[in-house]
Amino acid sequence: MKTKLFIFLFALSSTFMVAQKKLADKFFENYAYVKATELYEEAVKKGDSSAHVLTRLGDCYYNNSKSQEAALWYGKALNRYNDVNPEYIFKYIQSLRSIGNYVEADKWLVKFKEIQSGDSRVKNFDANNLDMYEELASTEDVVVEIENLPFNTEFSDFGGYTANGELYFASSRHADLKKNYGWNDEPFLDLYSLSVTDKEGKKEYGDPNFIKSTKINTAYHEASVAITNDGQTIYFTRDNLDKRNKLDYDRKGTSHLKLYKATLKEGQWESIVELPFNDDYFSNGHPALSPDNTKLYFVSDRDGGLGHTDIYEVDVLEDGNYSEPRNLGSQINTEGREMFPFVAKDSTFYFSSDGYLNLGLLDIYKSNILKDDTTEPENLGAPYNSGYDDFAFFINENSKTGYFSSNRPGGKGSDDIYSFNAEPCQQKIEGIARDAKTNELLASVEVKLINNSGKIIATVMTTATGAYEFDADCDKSYTVLGSKKDYKDDMKKVVTNFENGKVNNADLYLTPLIDNNQIVINPIFFDFDKWNIRTDAEYELEHIVDVMRAHPEMVIKIESHTDSRGSDSYNIKLSDRRAKSTRDYIISRGIATERIESAIGYGESQLLNKCSNGVKCTSEEHQLNRRSYFYILKK
User: Fold this and answer.
1) Run of H or E including 296
2) Three-class SS of residue 619?
3) Of 324, 392, 390, 328, nearest to 354 (Cα)?
4) Stated pTM of the model
5) Which residues form the signal peptide (predicted)?
6) Which of 264, 416, 516, 557 is the 20 to 30 Å CA partner of 498?
7) What is the rounded CA–CA span in Å between residue 533 and residue 214?
8) Residue 472 forms beta bridges with which residues?
9) 72 with 42: CB under 8 angstroms?
């Protein structure tokens, strides 16, 4: 007998825990994290320590930026269960870092990397610098629009550079004129240009053609340009050629790169001159000019450097000559490869390197070296950088738009040119909160802005006129949730686009829970011939609990009514059981027994329509009579 009783009580307990979890889930799915937290924690106290409950508790705290509590619950789940979704490991790592527990976070990140070897967040992580890698890879707070340009081809296209309405770049697209280059089995590179115009805030590109010159492009490589401020001189890179425009080699049979310049004459780049600091035994390439054009920067693998390739500078003298090259030193150059320098109009120095902390291969960096020789380079991070080669950075005078090149997946060819727009595309989400019944403006409504992952990112209170406003990023999905004491929450979905400055309207209509002498909720449904409280009924009854908590002196009475189907006496008993089940649930949520004066069922004695015994009615008409009332006797 004792064994049977134990099994029976255990079954009842399990049923209750399942119901509690379902109710908590319903609140969680509606972003009511505080209520869900309370219910999940009650479930834990009653013995439900499932991975679902523990991780959901972690999510409730994580989405409210409560890292200490989030780490506690995620940790409980991960240390108890081996098959938890790896995404919770990542959230656990984030929570640990937020509270400064970097050692434990790094341990879990190693495990996360083992499980999620293909995950982009860890693909190139080094266990010795895990925090920095994560920051570089994240684009969560970065508002940068990048675009693979329409003139890219299946071949290599890179090095976008604009001057005087023209975009210059290198490409190996002209396959019919050249043999393939052994390095990548693509044709040799030529220099191209096309027109660039702005139309209604968008750039439009003309058709690419060979650079306007009869002598710059040859049967071998030309790439990487820099043009003086007056538009009269162009610097570029070319293979080392002899007088017959054939490849020239050093004693080891290697042909190196050299720097050249040409002058603009009647719209054509002519008078090509080799720069005097070239040599047949090392390469020079990738020219860049200082804003005042008094210095020329370039890349070289000459003897005496710090690594495979270093960045150098020379003075451009007034007589057209050049100083001796100077290595930019260890504040820029490393034992690795430094390449593709560029100097913006504000003298910010950009370059690519594989010698610093990076996401893989070449990354783009910026430095204030030209103003402060003690400064350290800064990795631009995603989306400029990826796990692949990212290089040839160029930024326009507005310091917001420009170009870079990359061989990242998803492009059209081996290297592609991408444009970027770092203008902060922002929109507004605004609205008015009103009483859904009277249309009255509602002040002091708490309005939350929730992002697509369910995290609360901002909270405001409506003004005296019911108004609220949020700043929002472009191209995002949000939920706006309005809450006020004695009202049901209302929520609206908002999806922003790329229209900078757009205002998105999301008015909120909160339904009052108190109407004269009643607490009004949606109908409570019971299964046929049953009186146990279903999850959907619990969800509605939580509104009663909230109102009574907000009014600690409130006393109510409960009435329950049925339709006419079934005998009169049976319906009296059934409705009374339902009324008392409703009362018992409210009391189980911490409301004192004496605050519910009575819970009485009236059966079918107080029908609201014609549907009495023997009258044929629809299901909807019968449903109207199945109802519960919560009368306020004392406030």
Assistant:
1) strand 295-300
2) helix
3) 390
4) 0.58
5) 1-19
6) 416
7) 86
8) 427
9) no
